[in-house]
TrEMBL record, chain A:
Pathway: Glycolipid biosynthesis; glycosylphosphatidylinositol-anchor biosynthesis. One of its GO terms (cellular component) is endoplasmic reticulum membrane. It is found in: Endoplasmic reticulum membrane. It comes from Lymnaea stagnalis. GO terms for biological process: GPI anchor biosynthetic process. This is Phosphatidylinositol-glycan biosynthesis class F protein.
UniProtKB/TrEMBL annotation, chain B:
It comes from the Eukaryota. Pathway: Glycolipid biosynthesis; glycosylphosphatidylinositol-anchor biosynthesis. Its main location: endoplasmic reticulum. It comes from Lymnaea stagnalis. Belongs to the PIGG/PIGN/PIGO family. PIGO subfamily. It is a multi-pass membrane protein. GO terms for cellular component: endoplasmic reticulum membrane. Residues 336-390 form a coiled coil. CDD domains: GPI_EPT_3. Gene3D superfamilies: Alkaline Phosphatase, subunit A (3.40.720.10). This is GPI ethanolamine phosphate transferase 3. It is found in: Endoplasmic reticulum membrane. One of its GO terms (molecular function) is mannose-ethanolamine phosphotransferase activity.
Length: 232, 1025
């Protein structure tokens, strides 16, 4: 009987955590959408006027979101994430930093390879690769730990539920968004946002936003399925 | 009309741009070195204009695109509008059958002397009283043609047995092609032209008029053919010692005349009838002065004299249009009627005016009336020309639809073979024969229809195509559902590559994407490569999850010794995958250094690698030459190393001997050839033409000989002589792992069967494990050298990049697909759809990466002159060489297409390291058979090769289909002739190239298979004896 209550308590905690996570993802998705619109419009934050500043704002926003999610998982979900226990060790922090720097460099090389100008607008390219690192590698570092194996394992298995789902969707979608963002660059519409890397930044950001939205829908869905299979 | 002049001298300076003749006073103060080499060099013209303003005229001479010499000559002699397709006939100049001023001169028993470009002779054979013609095709020859003209022209000028002299100088154009306008050679050339003009004007007499003109302009890189302002703005300068106009030319504004205006002007000035099909307008200014009419005295006479010329011109055009309408009836009737009314009205006004002037003398408003008449005639001629321009840009919609339907049918048919023949059946299903027969019937019907009744709508072809398509789709759908191969098809890389191909096809509908297609294709190839590597990574980790034991062990070791972690990360197969992906991406990115610009790309500069070596100076020349030599050497070495690694360079069979010696020797000769080509002009003049071509000819001979050898003896395997008995006395290279002695159970069984359990060991055969792929690679190495020779020193390094990219892509592709096959336990490796798309994208990328663009002027005609000189009798050989140059990338990659089947079986070192092995796979390693595995299953080999061939053709035809549909949809688009139509033409040529190459590769593999089976049979019988 006691065990039953305990499992019930546990499943209640898990559900609460999942629902809070889903809600926060929904809210932050909306906020990211608003941020994208603000960046695109004329104004002091316009990314068209100053792309580097715009990218810095995006990075700060993504950072804030990561910390927020981390806070949520720290407060509510300490039990659920036993799969990847959080142990703040100096070595893993150093390793994560190393991974982030490496990720930034790799993203930079990939940007160049995909056709970004080699000699001109290096600042923009560098900021864009930093942005991609913050959007993709940083959440992975925080929530999946510094072990690269865990990252890829997460991508191959879709069963995980929790923060991993959010990270999975946001990183995939922002990568795809950044890729799609390059499509309008060659068009001859002569719009200021066709300049490298503005459209890609917007693409990555809206991908992130979309990923959050998908995670917000997917989390309760997974939870329901899991409960179903538990009871029937 | 009376002839104002008795004689005319027409000097055509090929590619004489308006900028070249226009004297810029503001540049006078500058130092000589700072003036662009093409500016202010024709000082005589300026001098004449200053001294005798009434005797000279200078015009912008607007050419109709296409701005290629033959089309321009046609326009300059007949005054008719050119057509787009004519441009293709530039190599095969045909005699002009239309009415031209040349023919009228002959009819009037006038004598024409001709000097220069022999294109004229093929256009007008046997028309000239005396001709000094010289071949013009050799672009590298700047001076010999012009010097030959100069040798004769002055003496012939002074003998007065001629009425018209035509001299066509070609040096300026060649100089533009080789060095571009901004080169000291251009200064020299134009100065020479200036002296020609000075001398000719000094000799001229009063009854002679001189026209100096360019047939087209040139772009900033010195090319021509398109319709940019730089290309169509040629220069025209008219001079006579006698007065030609009654007033000074207005200096402030540019006077513009069309090139076809030259024809009626010249005709009427010489007192000839205007050619029948002319659509040009006389230059009225030149008819404003006539000494016999005393036009100087009064303006009325001047205007009237102009009107006389215009009137004749208008009547000629009217007659032409009326006759044309009777035959072709495709001019809009209402428009034609208004035009005819204009002529009739003008005519009656002229008659009325003359009558009143004769009876009453000049009235006050006569001048005004005449001026309005002049405007009326000009308006008429202009409108008539515009009408013709609009009408003749006509599209045959029914044929467009039939063509597109045919391409769709072809693509669907190819897809059918790819899909339906998926099961293990040996024979084609019965439906295939039926559908094939239907397609053949369709083609036959189309041919008959076009040749017999081209006006009718080919309704039967439509219905046939649609019905066949539906049948195809129905059978395919049926088959897909039945066998469930659709689920098998849906993998990450297949879906992603299909999406990429679809988006590529969509891009053909947007002009911006076509303009930047080089960057777009680079982007897509990179994406596909990344997807492949992502796939490998996913596979590695999904495999890991299954082997829990192993993972746990790894975790344990990590925990105990964290120092080892870094090493473990480095040793991790995923790291290798990432590194090779990055390497592949970087190599592909470097290819963009070989992209040339097209005019629409705006701020874009051609990379220095695309300029000919001869135009460079100093240290950069040496550096570039060393780079080219180095990359060629690496190319040769890379192929050789590969063959050696798989043990295919052992023994003394003809093919092996040939492959050991031919590539290095040929490479050396290619380097010598480049060195000769890079010599500065004064040095290369000391060689005669055959000496300069000798090296390239030697390369041709070596390569063709080795190609033939390889076709006759395609096997690169070596059987250790049985006498040696043991493997102790191996050849020298054999002491490494490099050479993989392959033992075959099957052979063993056969031998034991025949010998009844003899104690003799099974035969040792080197390189049998890569028998198929080695032959393909060997052929590829020889073809790549040929392509390197034709691409010239600057672009040749991109072939090295292509080989590296091919290698890395094949490795990634094999890793992504090979282990999949192994896990299934099937020995069958059917070619993967994603791999074919990768190959197709790579070949498009390297079409751009070998310095080409999908535009007409970017064809590298000079490739026809590698190893040949002088004039060509037929155009098959130069056409073939230019084709090899243009499609070097696609040829390279599509000849390599069989490797998509063989490579996964080779499981070369990199693949082994990239994919995490299961114990089962490790076991297989011991009985490695390589692509010889396919030999055991001959039908399967043929089937997969056939499917590969089909797949490649399907992809190419899908791309061609979208390019054609885009051109058809955008046929009224502003950019259709500049962007969509050339793209379609190129895609069509690409489709043919790809199909031919894939098919040749297919045949070659069949040949290898054939010889291999003989070889194996031979071993068996030998042992049997």
């Amino acid at each position: 009987m006691n065990e039953r209550i305990q499992t019930n308590m546990h499943s209640f905690k898990v559900s609460r955590f999942i629902l809070i996570l889903s809600f926060s993802s929904l809210v932050s998705s909306a906020l990211f959408g608003v941020l994208t619109i603000i960046l695109l419009n004329d104004g002091p934050l316009s990314i068209i006027k100053n792309s580097v500043a715009g990218m810095k704002i995006c990075m700060v926003a993504a950072l804030v979101h990561c910390l927020l999610t981390f806070l949520i998982s720290f407060l509510y979900g300490s039990e659920s994430s036993e799969k990847y226990p959080f142990k703040p060790k100096i070595t893993s922090v150093v390793k994560s930093l190393f991974i982030l720097i490496l990720g930034c460099i790799i993203f930079y090389i990939i940007c160049i390879c995909y056709g970004a100008p080699l000699l001109s607008s290096t600042t923009e390219t560098f900021h864009f690769s930093m942005l991609l690192t913050v959007l993709i590698c940083l959440p992975n570092c925080i929530f999946c730990g510094s072990n690269l194996d865990n990252w890829f394992t997460m991508f191959t298995s879709s069963s995980a539920n929790g923060v991993e789902t959010v990270v999975y969707f946001t990183s995939l979608c922002s990568l795809l968004g950044a890729w799609l963002g390059a499509v309008p660059i060659p068009l001859d519409w002569d719009r200021p946002w066709q300049e490298w890397p503005i459209s890609c930044v917007i693409g990555a950001l809206s991908g992130y936003c979309l990923g959050l939205l998908m995670a917000a829908v997917k989390l309760p869905w997974n939870l329901r399925n899991a409960n179903k299979s538990k009871y029937f | 009309m009376h002839g104002r002049f008795k004689r005319a001298i027409i000097i055509i300076i090929d590619a004489l741009k308006y900028e070249f003749i226009d004297y810029n006073v503001s540049l006078q103060s500058m130092i000589n070195e700072k003036i662009p080499p093409y500016k202010n060099k024709l000082t005589t013209l300026n001098h004449l204009r200053k001294q005798k303003p009434m005797h000279t005229r200078q015009y912008k001479f607007i050419a109709d695109p296409p701005t290629t010499t033959m089309q321009r000559l046609k326009g300059l002699t007949t005054g008719s509008l050119p057509t787009f397709v004519d441009a293709g006939a530039n190599f095969q100049s045909y005699e002009i059958m239309e009415d031209s001023f040349i023919d009228h001169l002959i009819k009037q028993k006038k004598k024409i002397k001709f000097f220069g470009d022999d294109t004229w002779l093929s256009l007008f054979p046997k028309r000239f009283y005396k001709s000094f013609e010289f071949p013009s095709f050799n672009v590298k020859d700047l001076h010999s043609l012009d010097n030959e003209i100069l040798k004769h022209i002055y003496s012939e000028l002074q003998v007065s047995d001629w009425d018209v002299i035509i001299a066509h100088f070609i040096g300026v154009d060649h100089c533009g092609h080789i060095y571009g306008p901004n080169h000291p050679a251009m200064r020299e050339k134009l100065t020479q032209m200036d002296s020609v003009i000075r001398n000719v004007t000094n000799i001229m007499r009063d009854d002679t008029i001189l026209f100096i003109m360019g047939d087209h302009g040139m772009t900033k890189t010195g090319d021509h053919g398109g319709d940019s302002a730089d290309e169509i703005e040629a220069g025209l300068f008219i001079y006579s010692p006698a007065q030609i106009a009654s007033r000074k030319q207005d200096e402030t504004e540019d006077s513009i005349v069309m090139q076809m205006d030259f024809v009626p002007t010249l005709s009427l000035l010489l007192g000839l009838p205007i050619p029948f099909s002319n659509l040009g307008m006389v230059i009225p200014e030149l008819f404003s002065y006539c000494p016999w009419w005393n036009t100087a005295s009064n303006e009325l006479r001047q205007v009237y004299h102009k009107i006389k010329a215009l009137r004749l011109n208008a009547h000629q055009i009217n007659l032409y249009l009326t006759t044309y309408q009777q035959i072709a009836s495709d001019l809009p009737a209402s428009k034609l009627r208004t035009l005819q009314q204009q002529v009739t009205r003008a005519e009656s006004e002229v008659q009325g005016l003359i009558t009143t002037m004769i009876s009453q003398g000049p009235t006050n408003d006569a001048l005004q009336k005449l001026q309005s008449l002049e405007k009326l005639y000009k308006k008429y001629i202009r409108e008539a020309r515009e009408m013709c321009e609009n009408v003749w840009a006509k599209f045959d919609l029914k044929m467009i639809v039939a063509g597109i339907l045919t391409v769709v049918l072809g693509a669907v048919q190819g897809l059918y073979f790819l899909v339906v023949w998926n099961n293990d059946e040996e024979r084609l299903p019965a439906s295939a024969k039926f559908l094939l027969a239907g397609s053949l019937l369709h083609m036959l019907y189309l041919v008959v229809h076009i040749s017999l009744f081209s006006d009718a709508v080919p309704l039967m072809a439509y219905t046939l195509a649609v019905v066949l398509m539906l049948l195809n789709v129905a059978v395919m759908k049926d088959n897909l559902i039945k066998t469930g191969s659709l689920a098998e098809f849906v993998t990450l890389e297949n879906v992603a590559s299909t999406v990429l191909l679809a988006s590529y096809c969509c891009f053909y509908f947007s002009n911006s994407f076509i303009v930047f297609e080089n960057a777009v294709s680079l982007f897509l190839v990179q994406t596909l490569v990344c997807i492949f590597s992502f796939r490998i990574v996913l596979k590695n980790f999904s495999g890991e999850r299954k082997e829990n034991v192993k993972t746990d062990f790894m975790r344990y070791s990590k925990k105990s010794k964290s120092n080892f972690e870094l090493i473990q990360v480095i040793k991790h197969p995923t790291t290798l995958v990432l590194v090779s992906t990055l390497l592949c991406c970087i190599v592909l990115r470097i290819t963009s250094n070989f992209f040339v610009c097209r005019e629409e790309q705006g701020s874009c500069e051609n990379p220095f690698l695309t300029f000919p070596l001869a135009s460079m100076e100093g240290a950069s020349k040496n550096q570039r030459y060393i780079l080219s030599v180095f990359s060629l050497a690496s190319l040769v070495y890379a192929f050789r190393h590969w063959l050696k690694y798989f043990g295919n360079l052992n023994g003394t069979s003809p093919a092996v001997v040939c492959l050991s010696f031919a590539p290095p020797v040929a490479g050396m000769f290619i380097c010598f050839h480049w060195a000769l080509q890079g010599l500065p002009e004064f040095a290369s003049e000391s060689f005669s033409a055959w000496q300069l071509a000798l090296m390239a000819q030697a390369v041709y001979i070596i390569l063709i000989a080795s190609m033939l050898t390889l076709m006759l003896f395609p096997l690169l395997v070596y059987m250790l002589p049985a006498k040696l008995g043991s493997t102790l006395r191996l050849p020298n290279q054999a002491d490494f792992q490099q050479i993989i002695p392959t033992l075959y159970n099957q052979l063993k069984v056969r031998l034991t069967e025949s010998q009844g359990g003899d104690e003799e060991k099974p035969p040792v055969v080197y390189g049998l494990g890569s028998a198929y792929s080695a032959s393909v690679v060997a052929m590829l190495s020889i073809v790549s050298l040929l392509l390197a020779l034709l691409l010239n020193d600057g672009i040749a390094p991109s072939l090295l990049l292509a080989s590296i990219a091919l290698y890395l892509c094949l490795e990634l592709y094999s890793s992504a697909t090979a282990s999949e096959e192994l896990r299934k336990g099937a020995h069958i490796a059917s070619p993967c759809w994603a791999g074919m798309i990768l190959l197709s994208l790579l070949s498009t990328l390297f079409f751009y990466g070998t310095g080409h663009q999908a535009t007409i002027p970017s064809i590298r005609f000079e490739a026809a002159y590698t190893g040949f000189y002088g004039d060509f009798n037929n155009f098959i050989l130069p056409g073939f060489l230019i084709w090899l140059n243009t499609f070097a990338g696609p040829i390279f990659f599509n000849l390599a297409s069989p490797l998509l089947v063989f490579w996964p079986l080779l499981s070369s070192a990199l693949v082994g390291m990239m994919v995490r092995k299961t114990p089962e796979q490790a076991q297989r390693k011991a009985t490695w058979q390589g692509d010889f595995k396919l030999f055991n299953n001959g039908i399967h080999l043929r089937k997969s090769m056939f499917k590969l061939c089909c797949g490649i053709i399907v992809i190419a035809s899908l791309k061609f289909l979208s390019a054609a549909t885009a051109a058809a949809l955008h046929r009224r688009h502003l950019m259709v002739w500049k962007i969509f139509a050339p793209r379609m033409v190129y895609e069509g040529a690409m489709f043919l190239t790809v199909s031919v190459c894939a098919f040749m590769a297919f045949l070659f593999v069949l040949r290898v298979d054939n010889v291999l089976s003989k070889f194996v049979k031979n071993i068996a019988t030998k042992k049997g004896n």
